Amino acid sequence: MTARRFPWLAVLGTLALALILGVGVAVVLVLDEDDASQDRPDTSEALLEQLREDGAAVLPTAVQTPEAVPGYDYSEAVTGVDIEGDLIIPADYDADAKDPWQGDPGKIEVYADQALSKPVPFAILPDLTSAEADPHLALKPLRLKRAYVQSQDDQSVATLADLGTYWSLNPRAYVVQYLEPDGSKRARPLVTQVDFTAQTPAPAQITSSVTPQGDAFLEWSQVPNATEYLVVLQQRRDSSLDDTVRVVGRTTDTRWSSAATKRCFRATCTQNDLLKLTTVDASTMVTLPQLVAEKVDARLGVIAVVDGQPSVVTPIDFTGLDALPVRSDRKWDQGADLANRGLAALPSRFLYVSIEGSTRATGAFVDRAEVRRNGRDWVVPLRGQGTRLVDPVRIPVAAVDNIDAAVTTFNKRAQGDYPPTGLSKTSIVVRSDLPQKPSPELPPPDYPVFGSNDLTRFIAGQLIAGSTSIDVSEVAGQPGLPELDDALTEAVYQNPYSLSYFDTFSIEGNVIHVESAFSQAEKQSHQKDIAEAAESVVEQVINDGMSVSEKVSALNRYLVDQADYDYGALESSPGKYRSDIPAQFRYAWETHGILVDDTGVCMSYAYAFHALAKEAGVESVVVTGDLADGGGHAWNKVKVADGWRAVDVTWNDPRGPWNPQSGIKYLLISDAEFTGSALRTERDDWMSNAYLRQYATR
Predict the structure, then answer these.
(1) Which one, of 636, 663, 494, lies nearest residue 565 by Cα?
(2) Is residue 104 within 8 Å of 95, Cβ to Cβ?
(3) E strand or H helix at 613, and its extent?
(4) What structural domains and CATH numbers belong to the chain?
(5) Secondary structure class of 306 (helix, strand, coil)
(6) Phi/psi at 481 (nearest 5 deg)?
(7) How confident is the model at residue 422 (pLDDT cuts 50, 70, 90)?
(8) DSSP one-letter string for 207-237
(9) Least reliable range by pLDDT among 257-271, 510-524, 638-652
């Protein structure tokens, strides 16, 4: 047996490890004096019994589902672990966790997501309850307290909030074991899903929305006997524990707005700055291409507190909030002739950077009451509709004949001029007022079904078949499968025959309720047209002797020659959400827009290429993201040999907004080759999270 180290840990005995984290306070290691004063049980069995009483759980080391996710095995899940409890692993090897965020790389790691991209900090200690002949390691949660600062009577008052442990903030975690209990390397890492619980119940439901001023607004269900609620933001930017968790709201109410996080610096203000999802925004990267943006691991949620005891966090999804404004983007005034044209030179659109780093646009307006004269200039606060953002613009008095009339004329011109976008988010809500009984499972469809896993494929098949109430209880819950909403969004984006882009979904337990945008007859008619068009196109342009690259090139050429970008449909969607798009223009976002009617926007181009690629025997996916110059976008990736390459048919279309005359500029390229105006970031909703890493280009 390998000699066990940790001589310094022997001093700790069964003392609890805790971290007290406060604003401006260094990380401190604290020994629990109450535990230290207790007599240590005399026998290993007694210690093990005490461990069980403390809520510890022994993790399995046996594989239940091999290759549940490519490259990873899964064990059975472990549920009901207390937020104070240790996770015990049989291990005849030493572990040395120098960085609590990393665990011990290559041995034991813990993540908050199935994609294994969001690490959870923890400590590794020897399990002193185990016998010397059967050693174990204990993964111990780190306790967490945070200061909350609020203004009271023009003074800042700080209070300390007990958030429980990092298990509280990550009630579902994934433990990765790289070694067998005897210390030998596993053929594939073993992943164990662990669900934590607390005596205090968490809010059962939480909803998020955007206020008319562009702030995040959270509402949640009341917890009986709760004395307060803590709105908690996890936002890891570096390897330290400092400032990774903030209490951004502390309230006895069941609602909170991010308006309280507004920050002003002289004449300009920012909002939602704390919620940023990237270290560098795309607007800055356009002017400073040497900068490399990194995604921020940002998670927001609510903890209920009863008699001083915190619950686990009830998280929210940033889906629908990623367009929240942060700061204005003053690109508009480059070359604007303010001296001669006055307010007539102001743009009707107001550009701003959102929390996910893209530049977006909204209607501009001026409040006459805010306009003031400063010497020879009018100071005109240009504001963005739906935001709290303002850009003070100095306009020479000599350039304005009548300031009242000029403001009225400008506002009339700018009114209703919201930015069009070719892509928006899937609508998923949680409701309890829907029928309890799901529809029966429909027979499999006759059209292609896409999905990276069994759950996604099942949902996709039912969407294509036209089910309005999908019961996934026979499929969900298996090791390695994604969360239900994760699988649902993949099913929508990766299935051009589902025609579900405009559907509204609600999730109740293991049942997905679907409010379809098309009647069953409309859906079946469109599906038939798509299938016939795909078969006809492939017969025309594809032959058996073609390589994959040649097939992709032929399909791209057909679409850019045949299809037209639908500017009219784009201009018909003045808002940020799918509900803003009139029903008569929905074709431009669905597969049949480009493939059958020969016109559409980026989403239809991507769906059409995906359908054609499947018909031609080419493996492809639809990708969604945001352009550096603003707006959502969709494109494709195809598998060539052993790697993936990007294809953007929309940007290849010579008659499209970007006018690439060759029609092949963005054909079979790497992600890094999207540069200049084509610079973009990928979202994570087009594919189940655990599989995203597989689609990086080579």
Answers:
(1) 663
(2) yes
(3) helix 602-615
(4) 9-193 (no CATH), 206-316 (2.60.40.10), 427-695 (no CATH)
(5) strand
(6) -80, 150
(7) very low
(8) EEEE-TTS-EEEEEPPPTT--EEEEEEEEE-
(9) 257-271
